[in-house]
Design brief:
With about 140 residues, the chain is α/β, with parallel strands linked by helices. It has helices spanning about 55-60, 75-85, 95-105, 105-110, 110-120; strands spanning about 5-15, 20-35, 45-50, 70, 90.
Length: about 140
């Protein structure tokens, strides 16, 4: 699926456990593209992937060729995609971005991004969507 921005999520689903006559929990991974509200002419699309578990390797494998903005929950497997050394994904989450600003205030103090977050907090728009484009501190 071609996209600049994706929403990702996983859902537990019951599946038959072979040979046992019982069910076990599998995962249905969902990747959604829909930027029409933002003016895109690309049609909405959804991609489903099944896995027998919730290992971090699942989204890492599913999104290995994706470059762009990812909106996802706080599952650690998605975090690895934002932190990968080669072409990390951008995080479309204001609170996640804010936590990084707060984690590296000495690096970002006075930058345009830091000032933007200060302005957003002053106007109480903490639920607004934003793209994380934060520099990393040198260690």
């Amino acid at each position: 699926m071609s996209a600049n921005k994706l929403h990702a999520d996983d859902t537990p689903i019951p599946v038959l456990a072979p040979g046992t006559g019982k069910t076990k929990t599998g995962r249905l991974w969902t990747y959604v593209r829909d930027d029409q509200p933002a003016g895109s002419t690309d049609p909405p699309a959804v991609l489903f992937r099944y896995s027998p578990d919730r290992k971090a390797e699942r989204p890492r494998t599913h999104l290995k060729n994706f470059r762009g903005i990812l909106q996802a929950d706080g599952y650690a497997g998605f975090q690895e995609l934002y932190d990968r050394p080669q072409e990390p994904l951008l995080e479309a989450d204001l609170l996640g971005a804010l936590s990084r600003v707060l984690s590296y205030p000495e690096c970002l103090q006075g930058t345009a991004l830091f000032l933007l977050f200060e302005a957003l907090l002053r106007t109480d728009k903490t639920s607004a969507s934003s793209t994380t484009l934060l520099p990393r501190c040198s260690e």
